[in-house]
């Protein structure tokens, strides 16, 4: 007897794939990126970038989105964002 997968079945092979960054190189973005530009590059939601930037601005550590305030807008610092991105392959150390 064979079982057919139900619609609620999760394909774990998809979960092991590394997220891809945007095809546009980071150097094409301005030095001070908007929340939307950073979210597009990282392929995450704007609310995620905004939350991480707020945590950084409120002093909850350096592991969050590198951001500064420009007036009442938040900008993401491109060069520090690039330095924070982990480009190693999982489990290989390279």
Helix content: 25-40%
Counted by DSSP, the helix tally is 4
CATH class of the domain at 21-84: Mainly Alpha
Ranges where pLDDT stays below 50 over 5 or more residues in a row are: 8-15
Q: What is the quaternary state of this protein?
A: single chain
Report on the architecture of this protein.
With 94 residues, the protein is α+β, with helices and mostly antiparallel strands. The protein has a domain at 21-84: Arc Repressor Mutant, subunit A. Helix content is 33%, strand content 12%. The protein has 4 helices and 3 strands. The protein has helices spanning 12-15, 35-42, 46-57, 78-84; strands at 32-33, 67-70, 73-77. It has a 3-stranded antiparallel beta sheet. Mean pLDDT is 77; it is low at 8-15.
SSE diagram, text form:
Blueprint: H1 12-15, E1 32-33, H2 35-42, H3 46-57, E2 67-70, E3 73-77, H4 78-84
Antiparallel strand pairs: 1-3, 2-3
Helix pairs in contact: 2-3
């Amino acid at each position: 007897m064979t079982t057919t997968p139900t619609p609620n079945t999760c394909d774990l092979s998809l979960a092991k794939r590394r997220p891809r960054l945007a095809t546009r190189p980071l150097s094409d973005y301005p030095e001070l990126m908007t929340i939307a530009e950073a979210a597009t590059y990282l392929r995450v939601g704007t609310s995620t970038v905004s939350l991480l930037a707020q945590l950084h601005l409120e002093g909850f550590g350096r592991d969050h989105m590198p951001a500064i305030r420009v007036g009442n807008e938040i900008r993401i610092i491109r060069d520090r964002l690039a330095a924070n991105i982990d480009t190693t392959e999982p489990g290989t150390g390279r």
